C-alpha cells in the first residue's frame, strides 16, 4: 500500500507529466505554424511520450492500492520567438522534470518505500535520455542557425521520429 504522502506526490507528478504533454503539443502547434512540420512531428511524439509517462505512474498507483485523482492542468505558453527558443525551453523543462523525479526518489527513500524507489529508477534513466535528446537538438539548431538549408535538414530528420510506447508494468 502506498503512503498517503507518496500517493499525493505521485498524483502531482501525473499532473506534471500531463502538463508536459500539453506544453509539447502547444510547441508542436506553434512550430508547425512556422512551416517546420518535422519539428512539429517531434513535439507531437514527445507529447505522446509524456502521456505514456503519466500512464506509467497511473498504473503504479493503482497497483499499489492508491487512488489517482485528476487535477486541473495549467495552460502552457502558446508563442515562442524562434525554434531555438522552443528548444531552450524544452531543455529547461526537462531539467525541471528531472528535479521533480529526484524529489520523488528522495521521498521514497525517506519512507523506506523500496517499491516506489525501484519504479522511479526507470524515470531516473528516462530523464537522462530526455535531457540529452532535447539538448542535442538544441545544439544542432544553434549550430545551423534558424534560417536556410540547415534548419530544413534537421526538420527532415525530426519528421522521421516515431512513437514507441515504453514497456508497461502493471
Ligand atoms: Fe516525462 Fe519529458 O519527462
Secondary-structure topology with pairs:
Elements: H1 4-33, H2 37-63, H3 83-110, H4 114-144, H5 149-159
The structure holds MU-OXO-diiron (FEO).
Tally the helices: 5
Report on the biggest sheet: none
Broad shape: elongated
CATH hierarchy, class: Mainly Alpha
**CATH level-four homologous superfamily name:** Ferritin, core subunit, four-helix bundle
Low-confidence stretches: none
The appropriate CATH architecture is: Up-down Bundle
Strand content: under 5%
Task: List SSEs in N-to-C order.
Answer: HHHHH
**Based on helices, strands and strand pairing, what is the structural class?**
mainly alpha
Helical residues, percent? over 70%
Multimeric state: single chain
Distance between termini?
14 Å
What count of structural domains?
Answer: 1
In the CATH hierarchy, the third-tier topology is known as Ferritin
- Number of E strands: 0
Overall radius of gyration = 17 Å
| Ligands bound to this protein structure | MU-OXO-diiron
Mean pLDDT: 96
